[in-house]
Amino acid sequence: MDDILKVAMPKGRIYKQAAKLFRDAGLPISEDFEDSRRLIIPVPAARMEFILAKPVDVPTYVEYGVADIGVVGKDVLLEDHRNVYELLDLGIARCRMSVIGLPDWKPVLNPRVATKYPNVASQYFREQGQQVEVIKLNGSIELAPLIGLADRIVDMVETGQTLYENGLVEQEEIFQITSRLIANRVSYRMKNEAIQHLCDQLQKVIPELKFV
Ligand code: PRP
After folding, report:
1. Is 109 among the domain residues?
2. How far is the CA of 200 from the centre of ligand 1 (A)?
3. Fewer Cβ atoms within 10 A, N terminus or C terminus of the chain?
C-alpha cells in the first residue's frame, strides 16, 4: 500500500460542502477543481487523492479498496449495505427521507410506492405492517404520483422546494440523513494513523447537529 490516502468524494452538489469541511479542518484543498470535469484530483500537500464518484457508488469504491475512505450519504449506506466501516457523522448535506404523496391521498389496498430506495422503502412499510408494491425509479421520483405511476413515493426532502413546486406533501418522515465518513476495513488498519488524524481534524469542525 502506498501512503497516499485515496478519498472517494461524491461528485455533484455535495462535493463543495465536503471539500469545504476538509478545508475547514486544515487540509489544503484547492477550489480550482470545483467546477471542472476532472475525476481524479491530486491533493499532494495533504498526501491525498480525491476520486470523484457518483454518490451512490462511493461505498463500492471503498469496499473494494480502490479508495481508502469516502464521503457518502447515510441514505446510500442504508439502502446498499456495503462491507465498510462508518467512522464519522460529518453533519453536512442534511436532509430527510420521507413518505410523500398528493394532499388528497387516501389509503388503498396494496398501494404502489415509487422510490430510488427500494430496500429502505420495503423495510419501512414492512415494519409498519403495510403491504405495498415498490417500484424502483432512478430520479425525478416526484413525477410518479403526479402522473399515476404510484400512490406515494419515498424520497429525500432537503428544502422542500421540489415538493412545493409539484403540489406534493410530506406525510411521514422515515429518518434524518447526513453525510458520513466511511473506510475500507483493510485501509483502516494499514493507514490507521493517517485516517485517525483526519478524523480528529474533521471532528473539530463538524457542524453541530441541530435537527428540529
Ligand atoms: C433530490 C430528491 C428530491 C430533491 C429534494 O433530487 O430526490 O427530488 O432533491 O430537494 P429539495 O427538497 O431541496 O427540493 P435530485 O436533485 O438529487 O435529483 P433526482 O430527481 O435525479 O433524484
Report:
1. yes
2. 32
3. C
